[in-house]
Design brief:
The chain has about 210 residues and is an alpha+beta fold. It has 6 helices and 7 strands, in the order ββαββαβββαααα. The strands form 2 sheets. A 5-stranded mixed β-sheet has the order 4-3-7-5-6, covered by helices on one side. It has a two-stranded antiparallel sheet with strand order 1-2. Strand 3 and strand 4 form a beta hairpin.
Length: about 210
């Protein structure tokens, strides 16, 4: 015996059962939700986030015109909008150095740097330091030669910080290198190799920097 009641009009065919009514309502709601979801990306693309700012930045020698949310970090813009994933998101609190890049020649923790603050600046990431012919930067080559890495996750940030360390004049002794590289953590413990790599690459980097600015 059917325990689902069916309503009838006074003089006509059976009306919808409760089960049919519920299934039809659920299906209609699903179609509406799907339509809304499909429409959402289009609306987001047409209407930028409120407060977005036009930002012009040169990244690895290439100019970019971006519309950015004021709260977007330089790290997220580099990775998610420009596809430059060399800078790593380690701690996202400026404590590990894996996200180190250069802004106008100075090293910064890109996870703590607002992307809109780079407006009009030149940003260099690990992808932009090799020669046009594909030759590794002297610091990159030194890291390879001295096995200054294991898992490699922190290596891009280590290399960018090491280049800045030499440029800043803070690579004149082992103690100085250790101090000014202390903001870049290597969870694999490759510090001995990193120190050797910087020590070896520093003279060559100074010569090349001097020749470039002569």
């Amino acid at each position: 015996m059917n325990d689902i009641p069916t309503w009838r009009a006074a003089d006509g065919p059976p009306a919808l059962s409760r089960r049919t009514f519920m299934m039809t309502t659920a299906a209609s709601a699903g179609v509406a939700a799907t339509c809304d979801a499909l429409a959402a990306p289009t609306d987001a693309a047409v209407k930028p986030h409120a407060g977005s700012q036009a930002t012009r930045v040169i990244v690895n020698g290439k100019p970019h015109e971006l519309v950015l949310e004021p709260r977007a970090s330089l790290l997220d813009v580099l990775r998610e909008q420009l596809g430059l994933t060399g800078a790593k998101k380690g701690c996202d609190h400026g404590q590990c150095g894996a996200c180190t890049v250069h802004v106008d020649g100075r090293r910064v923790a890109s996870c703590l740097t607002l992307a809109v603050k780079a407006d009009g600046c030149a940003v260099t990431t690990i992808e932009g330091i090799e020669s046009p012919d594909g030759t590794l930067h002297p610091m990159q080559q030194a890291f390879v030669d001295h096995d200054a890495l294991q898992c490699g996750y922190c290596t891009p940030g280590q290399v960018m910080a090491a280049i800045a360390c030499v440029r800043e004049g803070h690579a004149t002794s082992d103690a100085q290198i250790r101090e000014y590289m202390s903001g870049n953590l290597c969870r694999c413990g490759a510090y001995a190799g990193i120190l050797e790599a910087i020590r070896e690459a520093a003279p060559q980097l100074r010569r090349s920097e001097g020749a470039r600015h002569a």
